[in-house]
Structures are given as C-alpha cells and as structure tokens.
Amino acid sequence: MSLQAVLRAGRAVRGRLPGLSGNARAVHGSSLRSSGSRSLLVAVGAAVTAGLVAGYKHLQRAEMASLDPGQELEKRLAGFMAPPVTDPEQLRRHSGDMKSRMELLIMDTQADVCRALERADGGAAFTVDRWQRTEGGGGVSCVLQDGNVFEKAGVNVSVVHGYLSEESIQQMRSRGKNLKTKDGKLPFCAMGVSSVIHPKNPHVPTIHFNYRYFEIEEADGNKQWWFGGGTDLTPTYLNQEDVVHFHQTLKEACDQHSPKFYPKFKKW
User: Fold this and answer.
1) Residue of 58, 94, 161, 208 marked active site
2) Which residues contact 129 (CB under 8 A, 6 or more apart)?
3) Is 247 tagged catalytic?
4) What is the pLDDT of residues 12-63, one digit of tens each?
5) Which CATH number fits domain 3-12+19-267: 3.40.605.10, 3.20.20.70, 3.30.200.20, 3.40.1500.10?
C-alpha cells in the first residue's frame, strides 16, 4: 500500500475538508462512518490506482506484437468478464490485425479493472450484460452498484462495425482525408473500453476513462486507423495529493515510451 493512499485515507476519516473544486460534482449524501472507514478508503485508492495501472499497461501494448505462437488464447479468453464480441476463431485467424489485438486488449483491461474494484468493495459484484448491435458488433457492459465502497461503477466494452454514412465520409474528407469508397460505401470498425466509478465517500474522487480505436477500409484494401481517449478525476473535495498521484501514474506510463508524451497529452 502506498504512503499516499494511507495519508489520503487518514485525512478523509479525520474529516479534513480541503477547498471545493470549481468543477466538482454534487456532494453525495452518504459517507463512510464505520470503524472500517480507513481500510475501505485505502482499498478504494488501491483499486483506482490498480485500474489505471492495468489500463495503461495494456494500452502500452497498443503497438503490441501479435499473439505468441505458443500462447494459448483459451486461457486469455477464460479471464474475460464475458466472451469477446468477435468469434474467438476469427480472432485467432487474424491475430496479427490491429483490430483483433485491440479487442483482446480492451477485454483484458475490462476484466482487470472489474476485479480490482470488486476486491476493493469487498461486497458487491459486477453484473455482466453481453449485448449485440443489429447493425453489426456488440459489447459487454459490467455494472456494480450499492456496494460497501462504491455507489456505482461501470466498465464497458463496445466493438461495432458497419458502413459510414455519406455525411460522415464527407466530414472526414473535409478534414483532408482522401478516402476511396466502393459504390459510395466505406466499411468501419470502432471499439473501446470506458469506465465511470462513483465512490460513496465524497472525499474520494469520481474517476472516468475511455480508450478507443477506429478503423476504416478503403476500396483498394488500404486501412487507416486512429487511437483516442482520455481519463480524468472529478473530486467533490479537492485533494492535491490525489491530483499528484493521478498525474504521476499517467506520467510514468507515458515516460516508458517518450518523455515528450505526458506534457503533450496533458495539454491536449
């Protein structure tokens, strides 16, 4: 357990109230008052940190190599919250494709974050809903609510595909994209993992993240793709140590690739 997490827990239990953040969300009426408040708050901090670290470690592999020949995909699938949207056999056949690698990555991330939050809560478990999209694709929605620590937490994956509308194609072309369509159609695939986590205790900030991938395939078979996303804290009571810890975690992840990334992405 980090010293920062312990300090945050102790301060919250003692009831010290730093100044309100200018963009803070509404204060929840409930807070943790039992003798176990300290350990619960430490657990919340650990879960949020674990979620960030898990998510970023997986996202650091967005450029990852395809599955090693000796790796058993079944073991990886068994760790997911639900079966992936894409048929596992198709993922296996196209293991070198970026969209296959990304789908496995976001399913891994979802499972890691959900299990970290369940451990921190110590009571409630995630309800899992695997859904399908009529136009193509689907997703896995995981929701935990009315727990010991969390009022509500959602960790969701979506993987959708189809054809871009003519309006969307024109918008992309207006931004300088020279796109080759076939019969006016442009296939696309979009996927991502997102989460919003609301602790019961107003001294613990809400956290949000979403990481996504978008791919189009032109008439000549050429593929163009983009990554996007972000993460943020929304405190009720602003705690500078939370802010420092949050940004330090992100900086450490970015620095593993380039020291220029963190200041660039923070400003962006």
Assistant:
1) 208
2) 140, 141, 142, 143
3) no
4) 323 322 322 323 233 333 333 333 444 444 445 545 555 555 555 555 554 4
5) 3.40.1500.10
